[in-house]
Each structure stands twice: as C-alpha cells, then as structure tokens.
Amino acid sequence: MAPSDRRVRAGVVGVGHMGQYHARVYAELWDVDLVGITDINGDRAREAAAHYDTVAFADHRDLIGRVDVASIAVPTEQHFHVARDLLEGGVNVLIEKPITPTLEEARELFALARRTGCLLHVGHVERFNGAVQELRKIVEGPLLIESRRLGPFVPRVQKDTVVMDLMIHDLDIVLALVDARPRRLTAFGSAVHSDVADVANVQIWFDSGTIATITASRATEEKIRTLAITQPDAYIVLDYLVQDIQIHRRAAQESQPNRESIRYRQASFVEHLFVHKDNPLKLEILHLVGAVRRARSGAPLELAETENLRSLAMALEIERMIRDGRCESAWPGDLPWSARSQ
C-alpha cells in the first residue's frame, strides 16, 4: 500500500464476544478495509467472515503482509504470542486488556514494538468514554475518589479475576486522574461463582493525600458503573453507562441573624456537564487508525507504555495480595510509575 493511500487494512484475531465488536467497527468505517479475521474455532471464523463480507484465515500469522493493523481479542493467556508474531511481522496491534498475564511479557511486547516501529495499543476502552475525557478537564486536587463497577457473573471470563476483568479499567482511570504516586494499598476479595476472586475492594493512599476506594463485583445482579470524586470546590459524579457527569457545587454562604448567634445556611447547586456521546470502542479504533496514518507520514511512534504498564502492575499486585491473604502493602518502588504531569 502506498503511503499516500489513506485507506487502512484491518484484521481481527478472535471473533468471540469482544472480537465481534471490533469486527463490526472496522466494517462500518468508510476508509478502513476489514481484510480478514481468524479464530481458533474455524466455524465461528467463517460465520463471522460471511457476516462482515470478509475472509476467514486459518492462523493469525496469515494476516501478516495483508493488514496494517489487527485487533487481538483472544483469551489473555494467548495475548503474548499472538501480539509477538504480529509485531514481528510489521503489523500495528490493538490488544484487549489486560495486555498480558505478566509484567515481564508486557515489557517485552513494548520493547518489540519500539524495535519494529509498530504501534502497540492496549484496549482500555474507558479512556475513550466521552464522560471520562470531559472529567480529565475538571478534576483538580481530588481528596476522595470512589469507584463502583458492579454487575452479574459472566461465565466466559471466569478464568480472569474480577481485578483483571473489571477493576483494571478503574485503576487505569484513577491513576491517570491523581497527580501523585501511590503509597499504600489495602485489598480484599473473595470467590463467589468461580475459583478466583469475583468481588474485590481496594483502597489506595497517594502521596498527595488522595484516597481512592475501588469496588468491583461480578456477583451483583444490577449493572452499576460509577465514579465519584470529592475535591475542595465540588463533588463530581460520573456514570459510565449513560456517559453523564453531574457537578455538585457549594453556593456562597448566607448569614441569618439570631439573638444568640449567627447561623449559616449553605446552598448548593447541580451542574450537568455536556458530554459528546459516542461508541467508546469506535473512538478507540479511530484513534489507532489515525495513529497509523500519522506514522506513515513520519510522525514519532505513539506508545503509552508507562500508563499501560502501571495499570497492569497495580492490578497484578492487587491480585497477589488477595491470593496471598495479604491485606495491606506498600507500593513497590521498582514498579512503573509516572505522575499525570510527567
């Protein structure tokens, strides 16, 4: 493909639950060609290929030389070798979270991306939620952050703990919002429907004094996705599901004379922040496609390595704490970290 050709050729590895969403988005983009898909289940691959008017390949390596970018939506334990093969073949990669089961494998993939000059994007789709993008503009000096990501059990993800399945989204958002290094963690979790933790609660203390409490559950019948932030001038509530932000602010104090003292009445008002609502996965894929085009023009390689490694590192540490029954831990000094302003 000539660099002047703006069309991008895409492929999808794994067309299960998430892979179907990726294939649908690529198929809907007017300047992207969904060249092919692959899945370990041949019948499923052929059925999806027929639905999206593309080609089913027998192996993910068959996409090399045919696509510019590929989404990887296979089970977590297969992420490393699939991504490694594609990166070595010169394919830009969008890999569903968590990037890999270990920090060492994640570091190796980013090193490989730098060597091959390929993009490596991790699918933290909540970063592209319109409400989250607006939230980043208004959060300043948070005192308390309270995150709840609750929902019913889904058997297809029972191999991953609730930390890797759900909580990692909120860890990623919280670490991006707080301009300070974590100091201490507490973590509790228990199995309910699987052999690993299905519910978990984590508290993080930051050097800035910020306290973050994060709860994740896949044993709750009601689906809840909220983030509440208390800061000196406001109380902010974000609902991920409806992409809505409410800002509760304190109005000016008014004095009311009394024979014995002065009583103060505090009024408050609620502001609804306008949020541009769109499909976060579509925005994520558009971001990657745009980066592919910029790279063709010689722009520097865009790798959010530190942000992705720190989210994975904290999720892995929390998993270890729950597994080992270790309720409290200092944040290890050798784990990746970069404050928001760096």
Helix content: 25-40%
Largest sheet: 9 strands, mixed
Mean pLDDT: 89
Number of domains: 2
Terminal Cα span: 37 Å
Say which CATH homologous superfamily of the largest domain is assigned.
Dihydrodipicolinate Reductase, domain 2
Rg, rounded, reads 22 Å
Q: What is the element string, with H for helices and E for strands?
A: EHEHEEHEHEHEHEEEEEEEHHE
Number of strands: 15
CATH class of the largest domain: Alpha Beta
Question: Which residue ranges are poorly predicted, with pLDDT under 50 across at least 5 consecutive positions?
Answer: 258-265
CATH-derived architecture of the largest domain: 2-Layer Sandwich
Strand content: 25-35%
Structural class: alpha/beta
Give the overall silhouette: globular
Polypeptide structure, described:
With 342 residues, the protein is an alpha/beta fold. It has 2 domains: 8-123, Rossmann fold (3-Layer(aba) Sandwich), CATH 3.40.50; 127-276 and 310-330, Dihydrodipicolinate Reductase, domain 2, CATH 3.30.360. 32% of the residues lie in helices and 30% in strands. It is built from 8 helices and 15 strands. The protein has helices at 17-28, 42-51, 79-88, 103-116, 130-138, 162-177, 280-296, 305-324; strands spanning 8-13, 32-38, 55-57, 69-72, 92-96, 120-123, 144-150, 182-190, 199-206, 211-217, 224-231, 234-239, 244-257, 262-273, 328-330. The strands form 2 sheets. The chain has a 9-stranded mixed β-sheet, with helices on one face. Strands 3-2-1-4-5-6 form a 6-stranded parallel β-sheet, with helices on both faces. A hairpin with a 4-residue loop joins strand 9 and strand 10 (211-217). Helix 4 runs antiparallel to helix 8. It is globular, with a radius of gyration of 22 Å. The two termini are 37 Å apart.
